[in-house]
Amino acid sequence: ISSSGEAVVSTQSTGIQNLKTGTLTFIEAIVNMSHLFHVAALCLTLSAGLGSPSDHYKSYNGYKILRVTLDSSTDYRTITDLESEDSLEIISKSRSKIVDILVSPEKLNHCQRAFTLQNLPVEVINDNFGDDIRRERTALLSAAPLVVGDFSYDNYHRLDVLYNHLDALATLHPDNAETFNLEGSTYEGRKIQAIRITSNVTSTTSDDRPMIWIDGGIHAREWVSPATVMYIIDSLLGEQEQDKSADMAALLEKYQFVIAPCINPDGYEYTHEKERLWRKTRRPSGCKNNKRNWFGGCFYRRCYGVDSNRNWSTDWGKESVSEDPCSELYPGKEPYDQNNIRMVKDYLEAQRNKLKGYISYHSYSQLFLIPLAYTTNPPPDREHHLKVGAAVVAAIKNRHGQIYTAQSFADM
């Protein structure tokens, strides 16, 4: 499992056996099922089930999303210095020298002066992000509640709606689905629920089938990720994509799918309750720039959360991370110090002899990312991953006419 990287769909090989025989059939089927969700930058549409307008939800009024082009390490240092002093937030960065940032109205002039001094090209992506938040939230608060167990794809939903739908599916399809919770609980006491889908799910032979793990929601603000994973679950069980029922049945005879739609539930709920762009977990992580005052408190401010995607053990803390606990890229004090990642790791380690694939859904850029993330040295099975990636992007283009790029994490 890679310790860093960000993707729409990712297959990861470090420490886990890779996708093997039958992968192309499986991947193409999954891609074809996901037509409702072409992932784009900060998909901000409808949701459901939030609190009242007076619940102190961060408005982002006047905030701008800017795209900055960097040509040197000095340019990049300009951005990271501004981030370190809380003048901006990095939303997305890549090795292509493009960085998307979020800037408050109070910090805009300060940032613009820094950009001008460094001659940095800047493009306005969103002139007032608060308008999007306001429209989204108005729709959320006016949405009619669903019947327990139901699900829809015209809104985003809270965690309990996701979990209730999984349980309803297991009841509706007892021969092919069963739900369970990963061992343990998150920092805030929540469960990570998963569904196991395969033919004759209660039989002993079904447990021996090759396992494909799929997850979503590792980054809290990427709401389309759990929604996409829920659509895959519905499609495997015939609730969506009914015209592909024969293909789905063949997959369930060959594989067992273990799917967790939201593996950062604390952060996910926080984005619905308080702050739409929260990305990390919610466990207290230290002090800004690791600086404390004479009285033992934080000199600047207390920090919360860890980037779950960087909390795995493989080359932990070495690439694309920050030592500042307040940074979006903070990997934690040590590998697996976040309950949610440790829960996933413990489950997968117990299944490692049957685990054949790990697919994680994210929501920024039109990318299918393959190993590795922490090094540009290719893995021994690189040709296999390139073949998978080529098949995926071809299937997306054939189905939807959308152009995705297949590349390694390290080439971002």
Give an overview in words.
With 412 residues, the protein is α/β, with parallel strands linked by helices. Helices cover 30% and strands 17% of the residues. It is built from ten helices and 14 strands. The protein has helices spanning 23-33, 73-84, 108-117, 129-142, 159-172, 224-236, 245-254, 265-273, 339-350, 382-400; strands spanning 9-11, 64-69, 89-93, 98-103, 122-126, 177-181, 193-197, 211-216, 256-260, 284-287, 302-304, 355-361, 367-370, 405-408. An eight-stranded mixed sheet has the order 6-7-9-8-12-1-13-14, covered by helices on one side. The protein has a four-stranded antiparallel sheet with strand order 3-4-2-5, with helices on one face. A two-stranded antiparallel ribbon has the order 10-11. Helix 10 (382-400) links the parallel strand 13 (367-370) and strand 14. The longest helix has 19 residues, at 382-400. The radius of gyration is 21 Å and the shape is globular. The two termini are 17 Å apart.
